[in-house]
């Protein structure tokens, strides 16, 4: 396999910070000029080409996920001619531009059939092997005539069974709008009935949609101040191209569990509009409070924390199981990290910078061997209809970090009131002894 190693800038540690972990440089593991598929036969491919159901330059890789040696990729149907919206490739193979296999099947990617996938921007795979798919139901979002084929839905596939049966759960029309919602990205919180926190980057009504799997209920929380794009961040200059993109709330990440002052277990949800320099945080317990949704715009404002600014705009981001956040800085051709135990304003680190290989960082994923994967897709060319078939347009980069996804974060137990203080001390002491024994083993 051809592995391209490229220049990575490592920023020197600031004095008051703990030493940063050594990271492997990012390498290109796969790269494509255009995306092609494993077709049922060459004739089928030709028929799709002849009838414009496959237009190679219109197929863009956006999201990425990993499960048992396969890499799943999303292909949002922003333009016409995208024959499948979800597909996969083996995580290890010698071909550097592998052909994609539709997932679960070709039939399950048929446009206009509501049992099938229509428009997938992102997916997540939880710790129970359930794939959560955001299906917007609307295709051709970047064309003159976007078309709503099916209601915006959460689609679940239990990957453990190997049967890949689709369960489609349309979101309530109190929560989503058939023509304006844009389900962009999600994180899964496998607690108390399993929740998804979903960014809706609707141009007119951005928000975070909360979906609870146990009773299939959903609701939406809005805060214009932290979820709308801001004028000073809508112009991007990348690789000589300028784009004007006012994109609302987009990337989302989920922190490890912590025990709040009142003894309740909580988690921090991080998010940012694409066209903004700020990173925001809110506690998951606030999002889970349905009554705040009924109160409308601004009801969650008192609970939103502005963590500070980044050097550039960010599309996707991903957190590991201990609270290490990875994100792109699009206008700076940079991949950055932040250890969330440190103040955001001084804790950000550049881990890779390269104008030739890091051209619009879209999404990240971890595998189960400590590797971090990044999709780079030159989205600025795509939205300007300037995709050149002569250039490499899509890349997957990989770096060993030794970390794993937030979905595998530790489950905390709520503290029980101490029965008697001496017993607690003894337990604490024996835990300490155990920890030391571990250290010296
Ligand atoms: C595709 O179009 C070409 C040119 O019109 C034609 O020769 C070919 O037979 C068509 N192929 C299929 C499978 O329809
Ligand atoms: C890749 O190529 C090497 C050497 O040519 C071979 O040993 C290996 O099995 C191949 N791997 C795959 C996944 O095809
Ligand atoms: C979340 O809750 C904890 C404890 O209740 C609080 O200290 C923290 O500031 C909150 N975080 C955010 C982002 O509001
Ligand atoms: C939910 O929010 C309401 C305010 O709308 C508040 O009164 C209530 O205590 C909150 N519930 C929880 C469980 O935090
Ligand atoms: C980083 O990106 C921002 C916004 O895209 C831009 O204004 C700034 O000049 C860039 N800085 C560098 C060093 O490239
Ligand atoms: C993040 O910082 C904490 C506190 O300094 C440290 O214990 C932890 O190892 C750091 N995490 C990583 C992944 O480097
Ligand atoms: C202006 C500029 O930075 N152009 C670069 C864009 O990216 C290609 C490689 O992908 C470079 O060859 C150009 O120099």
Descriptive report:
The chain has 441 residues and is mostly beta strands. It has one domain: Neuraminidase (6 Propeller). The chain contains 7 helices and 31 strands. The strands form 9 sheets. A 5-stranded antiparallel beta sheet has the order 1-2-31-30-29, with no helix packed on it. It has a 4-stranded antiparallel beta sheet with strand order 3-4-5-6, with no helix packed on it. Strands 7-8-11-12 form a 4-stranded antiparallel beta sheet, with no helix packed on it. Strand 25 and strand 26 form a beta hairpin. The protein is globular and about 75 Å long. The two termini are 39 Å apart. Residues 7-19 and 431-437 have low confidence and may be disordered. One 2-acetamido-2-deoxy-beta-D-glucopyranose is lined by residues 239-240, 355-356, 391. Belongs to the major royal jelly protein family. It is found in: Secreted.
Explain the layout of strands and helices.
Blueprint: E1 4-5, E2 27-32, H1 42-50, E3 64-67, E4 70-74, E5 86-90, E6 101-102, E7 120-125, E8 130-135, E9 138-139, E10 147-148, E11 153-158, E12 166-170, E13 183-189, E14 195-200, E15 207-212, E16 217-221, H2 224-227, E17 235-238, E18 241-244, E19 249-254, E20 258-259, E21 265-266, E22 268-273, E23 278-283, H3 284-287, H4 291-294, E24 305-309, E25 317-319, E26 324-329, E27 334-339, H5 344-347, E28 348-353, E29 361-366, E30 371-376, H6 379-383, E31 394-400, H7 421-440
Antiparallel strand pairs: 1-2, 2-31, 3-4, 4-5, 5-6, 7-8, 8-11, 9-10, 11-12, 13-14, 14-15, 15-16, 17-18, 19-22, 20-21, 22-23, 23-24, 25-26, 26-27, 27-28, 29-30, 30-31
One 2-acetamido-2-deoxy-beta-D-glucopyranose is lined by residues 289, 291-292, 295.
